[in-house]
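Hi there,

I know you've been waiting on this one. I reran it after we fixed the sequence typo, so this is the corrected version. Both the input and the resulting structure follow.
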Amino acid sequence: MATVASNAILLNMTYTATQVGQIFSVTREAVRRWAVEFETHLSPTANPGDSRQRAFTDSDLEVLALVASEKKLGKRFEEIQAMLSNGQRGSAPAGVTALTINEQPRANALQARIRSLEVELTHAVDMTKEQVGTINELRRQLAEARAENKTLIGENAVLKSKGSE
């Protein structure tokens, strides 16, 4: 488990319910059920509430490894709860390290895409600010032109009235 922990820290990884299901060869629904049933032994991110995605830590994997192995032996949740309360934990399969390392290129690609989108957003905001400045300047010029037009209409009316006298 030490290898998994060090790689997860280096990669800053947590595991989704789907990944945990793959690790222990169970369904995502089984993982969710276990997360609820054994909530007191798991990290807060394993049961985040408010429709947020579950994120399981390496410590959570140790808990779930025990759950998975004991369920395969036919143990009931109550028996597993007692084992966990006594401090027992399992060990995640060796493939967990490969899972996190294999996902690193995807994580790197997503980080690059996020940086690219942040740059685009900053540029768009800057352009918007520039356009707002242009719009404000055009509004000022329009107000000046209207005022000047109003003045000219008034002067024109005065000239017409003097001309008709």
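Quick highlight: Residues 95-163 form the longest helix (69 residues).

Best,
R. S.
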